[in-house]
Amino acid sequence: MLADKTFEYNYSQIDAHKPAEFCLDAFSNSIRLDLGLGYFSTASFNVLANGLARFIVNGGRMNLYINQYVTKEDFELLKGEHDNRFDDALVQSFSGLKKTFEKRDEHFFQCLSYLIQTSRINVKIVVWNNGGIPHEKYGIFSDEYGNKIYFIGSMNMTANAIMGNLESIECTCSWVSDDSWNRVLSREAHFHKVWDGNGEGIKVYEARKFCDEILKTYPNQDPEGLVKKEEDFISAIIKNRAKSSSNSPHFPFKYKDGALPYQEEAYRAWIENGKMGIFAMATGTGKTVTSLNCAVHEFEKDGYYNLLILVPTLDLVEQWKGELAAFNYKKILNVSSLNLTWRKELLDIVQKSKRGKEVNYAIVSTYDSFVNKDFQTLLPSISTSMILIADEAHNIGGKNVRACFRKLTIPRRIALSATPERIYDEEGTNEIGEFFNDSHPYVYSFPMSKAIQEGRLCKYYYFPKVAYLNNEEMDRYAYLSKKLAQLWDNKKGRFKNKQEAEKLLMNRKRIIHKCDDKLRVYRDILDEIGEENLKYTFVYAPQGKYEVLGVDDEVSLSEADDISFIQKLLDETKMKFPNKRCNTFTSKDNKEKRNVLLKSFADGTLDVLLAMKCLDEGVDIPRAERGIFTSSTGNPREFIQRRGRLLRKHEEKQYSYIYDIIVIPATINRVDSFSSMERNLVKGELKRVAYFASLAQNNHANNGAFETLNGFAHHFGILWPELFEDIEQ
């Protein structure tokens, strides 16, 4: 019975007693659970799966109420759209959500299915009349002797909350004292008030369709088989708990086979290069894990860890913190605008180090905070024991960061980048190489071709599509081209006035970016994909306004067209497929909204996500299947990063599909007037197409990517081999 077990007052991931431990003990010794779960998401399944099969064998019964949204993301995106159809909406959301289930999630629903099958569970949907959402996360376990435990989960009962470092479960045992008994009875009465629909401002609906969907998805469950599965889970938990009780960093348990051979190869190569070097690894091949594997090996030698990790964005700060936690790094310091106390925390590390104390820490800093005067003042005091990991290391080429790197005394250094070279900045590229004692082909390289060949990345199809400048755009383009031609030095092969040329090139690039015909091509691509296949689609849009261009230097805007191009693409998508859920993802969105959008896209409740630049670095969404690139760019880094976003592996994704809108500025009758300058610029755009096409599955197919590319090359008198010069696969 429950009273025979020792229950703690609090369970959290950072303490000795974990939430999963509470669920296992409570389920295994109960015959009834009244559960108010709020959002019904994978969030809580992972924890609640522990002990549920034993609860079934005990003859357990359950009352469960939830709100009408599977996830918080559903609430943000769908609120108000499903009045009077709550059960239907729940079924629809569940159908998308179950595609993301892990084995323990499935086990939870297999147990629920058995309870439904044997009429031992009731599920209700609770709706607030004012449009709000009930999101209490609590329950009351009862045993056959009348003992009860009331528990409540702080904040959200989500994977990040329950299994993460910040949230906890608090519980009250009825048998401890009269006060405890009264507290538990009070919460039990509250549950039944809601359950019976007697709470003020709420309505209660039976979740019949939802239960039918669970039963249909996981039919004919065997309780003995469920117990066997659960024993396997529990065995793994006990094993991992024993390992994680140590404060030592280690390779994450989620990688059952430990570090992969190529990750060990990278470590050996780094050692041979004096513990310095660049890991030039294709997007999606595990640069983060590869570098942290090096850090773990060094910890095993040193007996301590002092890490400094530099990243370009706040999103990557959070991502790295999660990876560090998975490697069991306990002391993590966030140095960024999101942590106002970082100076005090860093000073504390410095002072302890000066007193001769051994201090473990992993500092994750943005490049912006790294160049901060206070950070640079404190860094030298602790730098000689550090390992530096510079993520997206091409960012080091910026003037301020380079100045700080010239003063670095950190002996062990790793640079991570899919594209270490800085486009149009040979000096910056060379200096990055000097900082890490490395140069092409680098200490360790894992190119895209190898990653696809070895199955680390997904194979893809590539479809270049052509958009044409209209007469007004072409006149404007020709006007700027004439000015550029006057600045071009044919003998030296460069512009005479670089600053003026860059301004003109930028203005001309805007014409290409905002080419009106792109919208026609975009609509054609949507038709080609079709409404049924549009789910998990990224759209990369150009920055700025959707504009009407004049011939003069000034750009004329009509009030009707004063709208961002990304919004125009969003409108086109909604107009074409009004039943599809799509949204924009921009730097103007706050962090919470962006997290909602990414999670919704990942679990399939959001079909299309449109972005400009903020998905270029660091965002990991393996489920993305299709990409529409409407923003042509001469910067290889951007399209390499964007392609990499789409090639991450997912068990339900066999191929990725990339649609690339290419704007070629000249018409047939203008070819003769092209100077070497113009030809070089066109060749740069076609090289991008060559790069995409070279590894595509359809590169030699009829009407494939190479056929489109060959036609353009011939049109501009560009030799075929020229397009494949310096391509880094």
Automatic annotation (TrEMBL):
Q: Where is the Helicase C-terminal domain?
A: 533-690
Pfam families found in the cross-reference section: Helicase_C (PF00271), ResIII (PF04851)
Where is it found, in Gene Ontology cellular component terms? cytosol
Name of the molecule in the record = DNA repair helicase
Q: Which GO terms describe its molecular function?
A: ATP binding; DNA binding; hydrolase activity
What CDD domains does its record include? Answer: DEXHc_RE
Q: InterPro entries recorded for this chain? A: Helicase/UvrB_N (IPR006935), Helicase_ATP-bd (IPR014001), Helicase_C-like (IPR001650), Helicase_Restrict-Modif_Enz (IPR050742), P-loop_NTPase (IPR027417)
Organism the protein comes from = Prevotella histicola JCM 15637 = DNF00424
Taxonomy, superkingdom: Bacteria
Q: Which residues form the Helicase ATP-binding domain?
A: 268-438
